[in-house]
Write a structure and sequence with these properties.
Layout: H1 3-25, H2 28-44, H3 54-75, H4 79-90, H5 95-104, H6 108-119, H7 124-131, H8 135-161
Helix pairs in contact: 1-2, 1-3, 2-3, 3-7, 5-8, 6-8, 7-8
Length: 163
């Protein structure tokens, strides 16, 4: 890939990658850092990447960088964050908050697949390239994620109806 092709990719994909990462991380500064790391990592290998495959390469790099960050962050436990999460969970009335909590309950691979499909609008083939899965695996993960979301939201609906 040439420098001008790389710049085209940055222009075309940076917002989508940022939204994808932010939906998982839920922290603007950390999401920006991850996106910057992704573009830096791709820049180092820019000559080895085909422009035709650049989109899937960028998203795959974003996914892997984000997973590395999540794993690293999981080892560090902040008591303040835990306390604030417990308080926000108790006062859950906003639909967006409920949906975000439902998404967070999904396994990481299902969460990524559903976000790429339903929030970003990628095809099953593109999601497979990004997550290093075949198309049938992607469909299974999305089916299971939607099923889990449906079950969780039904439970929440039942709890809200009893109030």
């Amino acid at each position: 890939m040439t420098v001008s092709e790389y710049n085209i990719c940055v222009r075309d994909y940076s917002d989508n990658i940022y939204r994808f990462v932010l939906k998982h991380i839920k922290n603007v500064e950390k999401a920006e850092d991850i996106v910057q790391d992704v573009f830096e990592k791709v820049w180092v290998k820019v000559e080895d990447i085909s422009f035709a495959k650049a989109k899937s390469y960028f998203f795959q790099a974003a996914y892997r960088t984000m997973i590395d960050y999540i794993r690293k962050d999981a080892r560090i436990c902040y008591s303040e964050e835990i306390q604030s999460e417990q308080k926000s969970f108790q006062k859950q009335t906003d639909l967006q908050e409920i949906l975000n909590n439902a998404l967070e309950r999904l396994p990481q691979i299902q969460q990524s697949a559903i976000l790429l499909r339903d929030y970003e609008g990628y095809s099953y083939e593109e999601i497979g390239e990004i997550l290093s899965l075949n198309e049938s695996q992607v469909k299974v993960y999305i089916f299971r994620a939607r099923k889990n979301l449906r079950e969780y939201l039904r439970k929440i609906d039942y709890v809200l109806d009893e109030r």
